[in-house]
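[Q] Does anyone have a clean structure-token version of this?
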Amino acid sequence: MKRRLLMTASTFPRWEGDGEPRFILDLAKALQPYYDVTVLAPSAPGAAKKETLEGVHVVRYRYFPVKKWETLCYPGAIAFRIKEKKARALLVPFLFAGLWLKLLRMQKDYDIIHGHWLIPQGIIHGLFRKPMLITCHGSDVRAMNKFPILNLKKRCLKRAAAVTAVSDYLAGQVKELCGREDIRVLPMGCHTGDFTPDKRQEQLFRQGDKQVVLFAGRLSENKGVRYLVDAMKSIPNAKLVIAGDGPERAALEAQAAANGIDAQFLGNKTHEELAVIYASADVLCAPSVIMPNGAQEGFGLVLVEAMASGLPVVGTATGGIPTIVKDGRNGLLVPDKDSAALAGALQRILSLSPDERRAYAACARETALQFDYEVIGREYARVLDGVK
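[A] Here you go.
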């Protein structure tokens, strides 16, 4: 009989086809051969209280009496939701309390808890003595490191039976935070069968004879997209396509228009739509920056999805990006906040010969296969097997 696993997260699809990041859903699916999996996520307007999503049992907990005001977690991450509207910070205590109350009732029915992100999941899990695995993703490690949150984060990390981080960079940050030396590096994964080069559609973006530079992800300050837009001024033979949404979108659209850049903003796209978008572009750019508080890209799952689709990647040498991008083999690395370096690297990729492009594409696909969910799910199962 399978052990019962409760996965908790604050970023999760609200419904089928939602544009919210789905890597927790994908990991839950990958763990189903090993465990009886349930995902617990925050409620949201329009989201079902309970449902089965792609074969995964999902429960959503209420955290405010008026459901239409449960807007802290979606769309986008909690920190960005608060930055967009500071009044949402008033919902934070309710979110903590809602998760605690739900876990108080549910945790007795499960053998293991797998908490994603230290805030709020890890902190609340640390109040219980249930065997748990905590996975750190990025901003949860660097953010809110003052009393009393810092103490609660340390308590959670020390109490957890196991702790994983999605990149070597982040594992170092966690060790620095709590002093544990046994942090296991385990990234999120990609269903490489869903993202393949053969999904390419010529002229999907009506680019004519131009090549396509793609950015995919949240349009927030830490993603550094404004440096990419600035870089495009030096690449007139390319079209910029941006898939995603967020607080920076209006400013980025204005920046592109003011500089006469051929840019197309697609907004949020589904998993299936992104597979076609990746395959139909010519290079992915990940211009993430180091934030003033030291926060960096935790991993960069879109890079793996793009590489599975045969795309070379130009990325900044920040956070977990160098874990994926091997300079000169499947892409190029540049310093952050350097538009000139971005432009040079993008132009270099766009100028590759057909043979060179095939070599980059083959290496990119080979890299992505290392992160296939069949591999990643098996590794997470091994860690969870040790959680007693």
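[Q] Thanks! Anything notable?
[A] The radius of gyration is 21 Å.
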